[in-house]
């Protein structure tokens, strides 16, 4: 089992301020902005991305908000109370994968990363590169054994902006990555505000707050994020070669 780290309350402050500015720019209700453009629905206890109006967590959230509770404190309270401490996925150190098949039976591996705080230097420090590569090698050995029909590997994260992360993968995977505007209703893009100790990056967060305060258009809000998500894709044969497991 992989222990799940908890997000700091300061992150919820960033998300709420973003939602407020989004509601102002789009001229929509704040609750609607929270529902459509933030991961708060997931964070307060739902642990799924499909919004359901009859969710007991969402109903509680709305009721407490309408009674005047501070939004950040409310989110933090529900998040801590309903957070799942363990994750049932199999982890290979900081990595796990999801296997999917298309209608033609062609398999794809989707990569996921989470800092497991196994080192003080941080998971992407130069001293940890060998460890991360060992984890990936083990993972791809299992993939090759259990899913022989896989053809592609895909990813999607702001982490691909960082050279220390990119160097863990074959160049064919990261050479031509697709960039998309931030999907702010997903937790992934908000990870760039969290440091290796799972605390807020204070200077980084303050720059973000300064930008959204000045934002006048939807595009200004998007550009408040310093790193967009990048989406790499490559045939799995390059990974088998890279990790020397063919």
Which keywords apply here?
11 helices, 43% helix, globular, 246 residues, two-stranded antiparallel ribbon, alpha+beta
In short:
With 246 residues, the protein is an alpha+beta fold. The protein contains eleven helices and eight strands. Helix 3 (40-46) crosses helix 5 (71-82).
Report the mean per-residue pLDDT as an integer.
92
Task: Tell me, briefly, the overall form.
Answer: globular
| Strand neighbour order, sheet with most strands | 3-4-5-8
Into which percentage range does the β-strand content fall? Answer: 5-15%
Structural Rg: 19 Å
- Structural class estimated from helices and strands: alpha+beta
Count of folded domains:
2
How many DSSP E strands? 8
Number of helices: 11
Percent of residues in helices comes to 40-55%
* Helix-strand string: EHHHHHEEEHEHHEHHEEH
Largest sheet: 4 strands, mixed
Give the N-terminus to C-terminus distance in angstroms: 28 Å
Low-pLDDT sequence parts: none
